[in-house]
Amino acid sequence: MCPIKLALVAVDLVRSLRDVVAKVAKHDASLAGPIRRAAASAPLNRREGYRRVGRDRQHHFRIAAGSADEVVASLRVAEAWGRRDAADIGAPLELADRVLAMCWRMTRR
Fold first, then answer.
1. What are 27-51's pLDDT values in tens digits?
2. Which helix (H) or strand (E) holds 79?
3. pLDDT tens for residues 81-92?
4. Which of 38, 39, 41, 99 could bridge 70 with an S-S bond, Cβ 3.0-4.6 Å?
5. How far apart are CA 58 and CA 78, in angstroms?
6. Cα–Cα distance for residue pair 27/29, rounded to 1 Å
7. If phi over 0 gives left and psi between -120 and 50 gives alpha, with beta otherwise, what is residue 82?
8. Rounded to an integer, what distance in angstroms lies between the CA atom of residue 88 and that of residue 23?
9. 23 Cβ contact list (under 8 Å, min separation 6)
């Protein structure tokens, strides 16, 4: 797995969340904040991990995975609260799933 590709997909996840988070923020700012932070954390930790070695590297990839999973949970909560419907969050959920799969592969080397 190429760490650069993981970073690109993680940034695509952030990009896919722009409109979703803006709409969630109009109704529930307290839910939009964690989505923003978790989405930003995935590519940032992935990138930081790329420059590390050994267990420290794996640790950052695991943090990136945790952040991507937090995005998934937050989107599901937004849907459950009626802030977004399934069609709005479909693409971000797919990208988050890709990030999670890539992180899993990066931590299993």
1. 999 999 999 999 999 999 988 888 8
2. helix 54-80
3. 999 999 999 999
4. 38
5. 30
6. 7
7. left
8. 10
9. 83, 84, 88
Which residues touch 85 (CB under 8 Å, ≥6 apart)? 79
User: Contact at 8 Å (CB) between 94 and 68?
Assistant: no
Q: Which domains does the chain possess?
A: 3-107 (1.20.1440.60)
Closest C-alpha to 101, from 54, 42, 52, 49: 42
The one-letter amino acid at 101: A
Instruction: Tell me what the pLDDT averaged over the chain comes to.
Output: 92
Nearest-CA neighbor of 83 among 20, 17, 39?
A: 20
- In 3D space, the residue among 36, 84, 43 whose CA is nearest the CA of residue 61 turns out to be 43
The two three-digit tokens of residue 95, written as one number: 């990208």
Average pLDDT over residues 58-70: 95
